[in-house]
Amino acid sequence: MKNYNVTQIKPLLDSAKTALIVVPQISVDSIGAALGLALALKRKNIDTKVYSPQKTDQNYSKLAGLELLTEAASASNDLVVTLDYPLDQIDQVSYNDDGGKLNLVVKTKPNSPKVDNNSVSINNQSNVADVCFMFGDESSLGVGTTITQKGNWVLSLRSTLTKPGPKLL
User: Fold this and answer.
1) What is the assigned CATH class of domain 13-76+125-168?
2) Which among 12, 36, 92, 124 is placed 20 to 30 Å from 29, CA to CA?
């Protein structure tokens, strides 16, 4: 049995804004552990979801954090434009169509500081999450699943992930 040093996981969590916890085979213990981790990550302001292809029933109704369960683990293709600028200095955010090109327009309040180009960051949200946890054997997710193809994955001892691509810890 190999023991992983928590110092490998901590930097991922320190920089993470999103997390996904996958539970391929549900049990009260696995869902409880996943929800416990999810709630702890939420307290660190990490947007966290727990995915399981199986549905929970009334036996799980007393577990805290059930609202974090999601029915879809697929990555979105969202584009996020982040502006490092005081929100209280922004007057309005809108968009317009410039000949088939999207323009995002951020209007600042009068006498507010100029928005610097270096304060804008663009992030393609096609990854599942910044950090992902697999609680169990991912083969239960099915042959066609591509969830583990991208991202940084922290695997439980029972996981047998063999697909190439993701960074495994």
Assistant:
1) alpha beta
2) 12
